[in-house]
Design goal:
Number of strands of chain A: 10
Mean pLDDT of chain A: 92
Number of helices of chain A: 14
Largest interface: A-B, 49 and 50 residues
Shape of chain A: globular
Helix content of chain A: 40-55%
Largest sheet of chain A: 8 strands, mixed
Strand content of chain A: 5-15%
Oligomer: homodimer
Structural class of chain A: alpha/beta
Order of helices and strands of chain A: HHEHHHHHHEHHEEEEHEHEEHEH
Chain lengths: ~350, ~350
């Protein structure tokens, strides 16, 4: 047995030497993890953050199991103009469900939706939108809702680019997510949108599994079907409104503390970024500014840009970013390409 | 270059042969992953479940990223008699905080706690307990609360075994958690206890990180300290009551669907197990039955055992388990040892 063990030891050493040889022969320059980003302060900030927090001995080092990065979705990971995708889904559902609700033809806000009255729809209040969302998103099992969303996503398309909505994701942000994950970060989506809605496609679209999607959520209701089996229903009752302070509070609820990096683009992301900054000196806070009419849209705090009701980026948020060392990403200047299918 | 590549190819082949040699020399019998379990139907059910759901091609196979197992804590992972650990913490806190609240000496339920009136405390209603929990668990930042819990756990000890409460964990269940994790399962704690309380020690005690602890939770409140920095407060308002149907609903909220395996011990775990069973034919549902007065406690549905107000295991749950193919674990017969420090 001793001689076998000795041979095994020699084999192990030889193994190590050969591994080193093979590695040196195959050595390649490390590919740029962010090829869709132009060189500049935004790209540098991301690389600097990842390097600092993953280098043993660096004061900013974070243990692998504790690495978290959170991403707003609408306007940060995918297009939110001219309207949130989930709202377009809801309006489509009103039309599909209308035959079951004859009264909708005569009562608002459904009447305007069915008439296609854009002027009236543009004036919808939050109460109107909530009514539409509850009418189209509740009263079924969680499994039924998922199937409805998937079927819609498979056929619906964005009116400007004529592509599925899940194609309307920003390639540079996908690269940031992959780069972070390759360095031990878990990437969470923290969206004002519906948690169940986003969970239907987040894994395929962003590589984010369901348990890493935090969003606005109904109070799910456990009950039984006719066969006595457990089912989960979607009653018309909001449990979590995941926006503004809610984003920070729900990150605490789900994760137990602040992430080290956060990405947003609008007023509703302010508290998430402030909470992230409380995690330490080397935290990374970034805001996407939409300033590229030609390749996407322009709306935001930069001079001369029109204000937007959707994805509002107020001047006060811009000022706070500058004062606190947050990084404002210019789509026009920082992004080499915006979508995977176009420059 | 060609000759270097050829050499590299030869090196790779040699590498493969040597790896095979080293592996065969080091081959060992696989150690029993559940050494604290006696052979029997409970142990067999666990091994059979893990084998089936992790074997490619098996109809019960579950993709690694989708493997989830959920565990109740009190009475399933650690001792819950004579009183829930968190309640003992709360009573201790009443005594610590009493000097700041002179009125407590004269008003219930605090008066009985401060007087050490066990008879009166045994009659506390849910309203009394809620009042004590809110008075001792709220009004501070999340960071302050964590520090208070950690300090208490470092000094408090269980009255029967005279050991820290975090030693009062069931060794066989730790083995199940490790065995599941070694097979790609994420192990979640799903407890009626406070999420923030359990998160302070779950990683060290069970290997369960904070984001995998689902528990009853306050509505955290994002605000600012005097320096204008983000802080998270604990106001006296319950957001999630994680018990009974709430356990299933919160699993859906946090994970997005049912787990494949669930472990409980009391009436409050019924819906979690029912929801787990809805995940498929090969799901594993197990209930720990406390039937071992000598080594721990006996309370439950087995003949002649006294009923317990804490951790009630009603006959109806026992009957449901038998009817639905759930596995009832007998501490007395299935567990070779209960604690790591004793047989």
């Amino acid at each position: 047995m001793r001689s076998i063990l000795a041979r095994s030891w020699i084999a192990s050493v030889t193994l190590g030497l050969l591994c080193a040889l093979v590695a040196s022969v195959h050595a390649q320059p490390v590919p740029d993890p962010l090829p869709s980003w132009n060189d500049g302060s935004s790209k540098q900030a991301i690389v600097k953050f990842v390097t600092a927090t993953t280098t043993t001995g660096n004061p900013a080092f974070v243990a692998p199991g504790s690495r978290f990065a959170t991403f707003d979705q609408d306007g940060t990971l995918w297009v939110e103009q001219p309207m949130y995708t989930q709202l377009i889904f809801a309006l489509d559902r009103v039309r599909v469900l209308a035959p079951e609700h004859p009264a909708w033809k005569t009562i608002e806000p459904f009447k305007s939706v069915l008439a296609g009255d854009r002027a009236a729809m543009a004036k919808f209040t939050m109460k109107d939108l909530k009514e539409i969302l509850l009418a189209t998103h509740t009263g079924m099992t969680t499994g039924q809702f998922t199937a409805i969303v998937k079927a819609w996503l498979a056929t619906a398309s964005n009116p400007r680019w004529h592509r599925p909505y899940t194609d309307m994701v920003y390639q540079p942000m996908l690269e940031v997510m992959r780069y972070l994950r390759a360095n031990g970060y878990r990437t969470y989506i923290v969206t004002g949108g519906g948690q169940a809605f986003v969970r239907t496609y987040a894994e395929q679209t962003y590589g984010v599994p369901p348990e890493q999607v935090i969003g606005s959520a109904l109070e799910a209701q456990f009950t039984y079907n006719e066969a006595g089996e457990a089912v989960m229903m979607r009653p018309p009752k909001l449990l979590i409104n995941n926006d503004f302070s809610g984003k920070a509070e729900d990150i605490y609820l789900f994760i137990g503390g602040p992430p080290q990096a956060a990405f947003g683009n609008a007023a509703g992301d302010r508290q998430m970024l402030e909470y992230t900054q409380s995690s330490g000196n080397r935290a990374l806070m970034m805001l996407v500014m939409h300033d590229d009419t030609a390749r996407e849209y322009a709306y935001g705090p930069a001079d001369g840009l029109p204000a937007s009701k959707i994805g509002t980026f107020p001047q006060s948020l811009y000022d706070e970013a500058k004062a606190k060392g947050w990084n404002v990403i210019s789509m026009k200047h920082d992004w080499k390409r915006i979508f995977s299918f176009a420059q």
